[in-house]
Amino acid sequence: MSEERSLNFLEEIIEKDIAEGKNGGLVHTRFPPEPNGYLHIGHASSICLNFGLAKKYNGKCNLRFDDTNPVTEETEYVESIKYDIEWLLGYKWDNEFFASDYFEQLYQFAVTLIEKGLAYVDDSSAEEIAATKGSTTEPGRNSPCRDRSVAENLQLFAAMRDGKYKDGEKTLRAKIDMAHPNLLLRDPLMYRIKHAHHHRTGDKWCIYPMYDFAHGQSDSIEHITHSICTLEFIHHRPLYDWFIEKLGIFPSKQYEFARRNLSYTVMSKRKLLQLVNENHVNGWDDPRMPTISGMRRRGYTAKAIREFCDTIGVAKRENMVDLGLLEFCVREDLNKTANRVMAVLDPVKLVITNYPDGQEDIFETINNPEDESAGTRSLPFSKELWIEREDFMEEPAKKFFRLAPGQMVRLKSAYIVKCEGFKKDEAGNVTEVHCSYLPESKSGNDTSGLTVKGTIHWVSVAHAKTAEVRLYDRLFKVEDPSSEEGDFKSYINPDSMKVLPQVYIEPALAVAKEGEHYQFMRKGYFCADKDSTSEKLVFNRAVTLKDTWAKEAKKG
Ligand code: ATP
Ligand code: MG
């Protein structure tokens, strides 16, 4: 579909720029994460967009860590971000930068602005600065320090760098206009004092540039032609343009697109961090999290996520994307690639009364009807099988075409069986279903002439292995927890994870490795989890199946 869709507004801008020979026809984008959390599906949108545009227009895309805030950033996040981006894209980026690499350059930019009389050191406290900012209806008031001489400002700024002052004692501000209609241009802060250790520069600096003074200039330093960010920065653009103009540096242009939101989850890193820290989930990579690492662990594929991002495209207005669309993309991809296997999640025993004790059949069955190259596997069959409890009804409902006294079904890839009876315990629970089988109905060589309406999956009791299965539901009970009244955490779905500690799987599945995907027939797509041990495999359900079984039934 990507080939056919019309150009999005960013592509239109880029094609126009190329046609006009702007920037020598070069396209250079960047993805600028702040390493203060793990990447989520919203970031995936931005990654696919920025790297995608570079690829489409033979340009370049930098990975740049916007690591100007020493307090919230950690190396763990840097590592996870790199891992997730490479996984998502399927390739490694060419250029990797850190805004902290530009600290010296940014300091020099600040000095240049001071020298031009366009920046000053202010002694006002944060409260004083806020109080004199004015409002949309009222102009702000000039700081008493606003008219300091260039020489004094240079000396004070150097002293700030040299650690002569405590946190908050002084700031460096741009000298723009305290009555500017855009409040962000009312002498914005450029530097603040923070005696804090930085994950890369250590204790070299005790002044740090504000995001607004670092971000745009970092783009310029890297000669980013199209600096794409989310809408909340639209009002910052005039400020970035002001710095560029006054400094006479590379004119990166900013373009805004709407943040992507996904239903039934939250996307802000601050909120995700709360979920992690307060143990509402088991870490950033919990399969219920909207993080890239959580989705990977759950069994979502990189290709499916890319397809999702491509499908939703870019928009100029904030909107909510349906989680169902992401699940659809996951299903589409896994349908083509995941081998089919049989696993019984809620078992009851089926005994084939006319099948000889100790005998077994080994069926060769195909792994994936969508992919011949996936080959075949051996499937052992014996007198006693596990089947799903829900595949038997003592008193069948209308249109129940599975097992009930007197009814026939096909056991997938094996025989047709007919239900002859069942056993119950004292509590009235069915403990065994009894069937006879038709030897002439053997799959692939069926001479019975019978057609049955139902096909069910099964696992031979004698050959079965056990595993743990984790089933997931939406993390939140409401579509948009962030817009609801009160604490977003009060909308957490208490049933978002269901653990089945012991299910039965066919023996071929016992070799599953972490990250491998399977379709458990009729039960969904599953992925082997990192909690798997040599004693016990653990599978996460990525997504349920649409009912593809009707099709399967015809094939026998
Ligand atoms: P959060 O609100 O989750 O903390 P952020 O914008 O602070 O997000 P950054 O690390 O600064 O996180 O984001 C890196 C890039 O990803 C930015 O260019 C940002 O615009 C983009 N981005 C972040 N969230 C989304 C989203 N939900 N949809 C699209 N792009 C996003
Ligand atoms: Mg940000």
What does it look like?
The strands form seven sheets. This protein has a seven-stranded mixed beta sheet, covered by helices on one side. Strands 21-18-19-20-14-17-22 form a seven-stranded mixed beta sheet. The protein has 13 helices and 27 strands. It is an alpha/beta fold and 556 residues long. β25 (517-520) and β26 (524-528) form a beta hairpin. 26% of the residues lie in helices and 24% in strands. The structure holds adenosine-5'-triphosphate and magnesium ion. Adenosine-5'-triphosphate binds next to α2 and β8.
In short:
By secondary structure, this protein is an alpha/beta fold. The protein is 26% helix and 24% strand. The longest helix has 16 residues, at 41-56.
Topology:
Blueprint: H1 9-19, E1 28-31, H2 41-56, E2 60-65, H3 75-89, E3 95-98, H4 103-115, E4 119-122, H5 126-131, H6 150-161, E5 171-174, E6 189-193, E7 207-209, H7 211-221, E8 226-230, H8 237-247, E9 253-257, E10 260-262, H9 269-277, H10 292-298, H11 302-312, E11 319-321, H12 323-337, E12 339-341, E13 343-344, E14 347-352, E15 361-366, E16 376-381, E17 384-388, E18 408-411, E19 416-424, E20 430-437, E21 455-456, E22 459-460, E23 465-472, E24 497-505, E25 517-520, E26 524-528, E27 537-543, H13 549-555
Parallel strand pairs: 1-2, 2-3, 8-9, 10-11, 12-25, 14-20, 18-21, 23-27
Antiparallel strand pairs: 4-5, 5-6, 6-7, 13-24, 14-17, 15-16, 17-22, 18-19, 19-20, 23-24, 25-26, 26-27
Helix pairs in contact: 2-11, 7-8, 11-12
Adenosine-5'-triphosphate is lined by residues 32-34, 42-43, 45-46, 229-230, 259-260, 267-269.
